[in-house]
User: What shape does this take?
Amino acid sequence: MSRRATRPGVAPTVLTYLWLAVAAVVLLFPVLLTVLGGFLPSNALLHQPPQLFGGHWTVRNYLDAWRQPVVPLAPAFLNSLFVGLTIMVGHLVTSCLAAYALVFLRTPLRRPLFWVFLATIIIPYESIVVPNALFIRSLGVNDNRLALVLPFLASGFGVFLLRQAFLQFPRELREAAVIDGCGHLRFLFTILLPGSRPALTAIAVWSFLQGWNMYFWPLIISSSNNSLNTLQTAVFALKDNEGGSPAVLLAGITITLVPTLLLVIFGQRWLVRGFTAGAVK
Amino acid sequence: MTAPTLTSAKPPGLASTNKTDVRPARPGAPRLREAALALLFLVPGLAGLGVFVIFPLFQAVYLSTRGNDILGNPTRSVGLRHFEELFTPAFGHVLWQTAVFTVLVVVPGVLLPLAIAAPLTQRLPGMRIFRTAFALPFAYSVSAASVVWLIMLNPGVSPVNWLLGLVGIEAPGWTTDPSWAMFTVAGVTVWMVSGFNLLVLSAGLAGVDEEVLEAARLDGAAGLRQFVSIVLPMISPSLFFAVVTTTLTALQALGQVQIMTDGGPNGHTRTLVYSIFDNAFHNNNSNFGLASAQGLVLLVVGVLIAAIQFGVLERRVHYR
Amino acid sequence: MRTTLRRTVLGLSLAALAATTAACGSATANSGGSGSGATDAAPAASVLDGKGEVSIDFWHAMTGKNGEALQNLADQFNAKNKGRIKVNLQFKNTYDDTLSAYKAALNSGQAPDVVQVYDIGTRFMIDSKSIVPVQSFLDTDKTNAADIQPNIAGYYSVDNKLYSMPFNTSMPLLYLNKTAFEKAGLDPAHPPKTLDEITDAARKLTVKDASGTVTQYGFGAALYGWFLEQWTAVGNQEYCDQGNGRDARGTTVKLATDDHVKLLQWWKKLVDEGLAPKLDSNTTTADNTFTSGKVAMTLESTGSLSGFLKSAEGKFEIATGNYPKINASDNGGPIIGGASLWVVGKGKDDQHKRAAWEFVKFLSEKDSQATWHTSTGYFPISKSALDTDVDKQWVAQRPQFQTAITQLQGTALTKATQGCLLGAMPQARKAAEQAMQAAVLSGTDPKTALQQQEQAMAGPIKDYNASVGG
Assistant: This one.
């Protein structure tokens, strides 16, 4: 391949910027509207033509959205955090143990068991949501936060990912540990897990965001108990509630987006690393 | 955020790393004790999946043959009636719309971020800011994105309609015109997944040699050909990952449909997952039998798609 | 049962998990409460004597300002009954969700003591055999419901027996953008009364800009099933068979009537002519189009008046008119929509039932209703509430509401205006919306669309009737 100029010419550069600028205007307009819309006087959006700019800015909508008692956002924050963290811990614990048994222990039926874990990965959750909802109701925990997470504490994907990581663990280290008289638990916690950090990070990021973003399941659970709203279902409830004043609605949505917006802006590198831990080995 | 569900997606590069299991020899260790320990270690994971993933499959089969009382409790057997209801034009329509929706989301949902990620690889000022900005939709949950877009397109409020009006275009009924609603809901989903896919594809492109990229981006047609024939294969793991996760996001989409159109107008955005939700939990239906039967259809669809993606597509993916 | 196996496995696994890692919290599941006694017997007030404070749960679906007003009333009640009864309000999102939650709670034995249910859930509540009819309490207390507006009590009365206490009630009205009316040379004091008159007014009210884009539509309303039910009642027609489901269990919804066909043809024509925008069944969106000035006439319930006035403030004035008729000769009137309060009996002891009734009674009293009416805009159920000073003052400030009072008083109570009682009524409303969307938005022939949905409803109605054994 013949080497050409290392910097692109002027014309392509202009085109590049033009394309990116157009794309940015289109794709970021909703983001702009979400954040700025919340600062507009509540009547400004309900106007022909909409008064998007100018006029007096106000933080009242944000206060209203935060203080309104019908869909309280603070408990929804806590619920979302609870769901994300519990599912994350659940996945990490169950996956570590199962993967350890599949790799380092003389487990009977090791292969078939692995296939069982693998098979659960391809089952779409929505196909079993009905039996699970009926089951949770029959357990009588539907007024408890546990109802939000109970079906999601184990993950075939986590087992799969960690098994791959454990298989690549240097055998010499394991043998050395055995010679030192290191028990299974100690080996697992002091040597194996610290050495599998990329895979653990990937699982942690994935499962936390899975829990944080869940919509269908919390929608069913919170529909019978408003205090179990997560941020995602709270936004939907807020739409029914504050639909008459879009500015308050947008302010409320902005509040719910703060954690993830911060994550995308400041934690992007970390986020990508977590997500693609498996991809770019 | 539009992260696809963990239970059914995996990053690329893993399936091909299958090595033989490490079989630690521990002479002298009591085998029975080790087996017991293994059992103890496996039980939490197996039980969690058994109780909430595997067993419900059988229960879904059982439920799909039941009618229900007014409180929604399963009662008498209705035989295969719920399955007969699947062989109707109405349900055929639902399946067709699910397929259309998936295609409308996956194709632009991967191509658009690719078209943005490619120029972002250049060493030009401001690219990092652009990348962060383009990733912002990733911060939106399904419900947040749907509600914001609903406001954007609400005929009484819509700044979009107003802008179109300025250039003399009469805005369509975005969510109320049967021929537009599907495009609108799919478009919003594309917007939502674009942030995530941009990050994934950018990460893939970051691993490609700078010279190769430059050769590809020089002048028009030739550069495009270069890009398709050389760069794309190099980032095929990321591309594959984006396609898989986007497909699953589209297939399992509920919030967009439920919030923006509620399956309407006149059922034109009714997808399989929405239909399951509607029959079981919406509008006081409590038709758990029919919803379970449709859930089994979704299972079949899910398995088929997994088979296609991992059996056919993955063979063409070049892992480094 | 099958779930028992799952439960056992779950329990074992939790134990194993705890044993393995010691990093697991305890998962305790409360089993439901216990209760005894006949479900629908109404205990007298004396059961509360000397029993200490009885705590009752009230599930409701009141949002925003209405939710706050309800909380204030509950606080008043609690202050009055200190040491005797304490009400805890629990918000359950929408009416649909409240009813779903109630169904689930009956199964798991965690039902509330009082539950607010929308009008179309009435048949279901009676069939659930889980409630104490309000009439039983009235009989026990040797009083009657004479102060309740007869048209309002009508909906919730079956066989002359009042089953639940109406609470938040509303009627549909025609809302007008008064400013736009005046600008178009129309008289807002004489709002259109029939479909044809709406068309005429809409022609004058529709405004286009230089490029031909419509900036103001004459008419625009959500394709909401409730509106269709109202139109039927205004035409003094029954919406379902068996005397609107009041003589016996209804078996068909009468969707494919000539009046409905005429209505949908008219609606479609308005949209085609560009006099009305394409709107779906989402009332919030339709409300936004009215308050933003994009449409000049809309249909909404009286409950929306306060919100409309607030949103339109500084932009335009609002006037109201009677709910329009399909034919000039129509002589019925609108049904009172909204929701009512049910006293739960299943699994409840006498103290709880009585305490629940005391609260329901309190909410229905003149003063509570005047407060409720003036802080929310819902129609007061008590006749004498309208005569209180607070109320008179409020109405004087909002002449738009007078329309609702006149409209109610001008409506004779017939089976048609009582409204259709059907177990599958929530689904029937949805079916009506499907037909409306098909005809107006997709261009399906109205007759065909209505017939399709009427037939589609046959199954759910049959299933429902079969499952309650009637």
The beta strands of chain B are 66-68, 74-77. Residues 1-23 of chain B have pLDDT under 50 and may be disordered.
